[in-house]
Structures are given as structure tokens and as C-alpha cells.
Amino acid sequence: MDGYTVRTETLSAAADTWDEQAQVTSSASSLVTSATTGGFRPDALASVEIFVRTWSDVLQTMSRSAQSVSSGLSESAAAYAGTDEGVVEWLGSYA
Predict the structure, then answer these.
(1) Are 76 and 11 in contact (CB under 8 A)?
(2) CA 40, CA 71: separation in Å to the nearest integer?
(3) In this predicted model, what pLDDT tens digit does every residue of 12-44 receive, in sequence order?
(4) pTM score > 0.85 for this model?
(5) Cβ atoms within 10 Å, residue 89
(6) What is the dihedral of CA 59, 62, 63, 65, to 10 degrees?
């Protein structure tokens, strides 16, 4: 595999960015959930509550997805680092 390089620090940085996005969208979901709906007319209130609940759910789904990507990138970085260390140890045993 000529020219194939994995930079674990890049994977880790990307994982951190995705983790941050997970936190931001989770926080946004909480803010949406806590939004007051008291200022709306009674005939619009049910629709507003559905809107708020739906957006909160969408944001939570986005947060879980971002966290999943973050975890996958972190696991990949750890796997590559572990493989590299194992190969170095194995090669060292022949020195």
C-alpha cells in the first residue's frame, strides 16, 4: 500500500470536533425543549408544541449521530495506534 498513511492525531482531532457538535446539538435540544409556548393563541398551541417537540427530537438524533461518529473516529485512532505499537514491538524482537 504505497502512500497510505493514517495520522492518528488527525483522527483524534476530528473525533473531538464531532464530540463538540454532539454537545452543541444536545444543548440546543434542551434549549428548544425549555422554550416557552405560553404566548401563543389556544388554537395554535398544539401545533407549536408539536413543532417544539419535533425539533427537540431532531436535535437529539443529530447529537446521537455526532457522538457515534466521534466514538468511531476515536476507536479508529486507538486501533491504528495499537497496531503501530504492536508492529514496532514485533520488529524490535528481531533486532
Answers:
(1) yes
(2) 41
(3) 999 999 999 999 999 999 999 999 998 999 999
(4) no
(5) 9
(6) 160
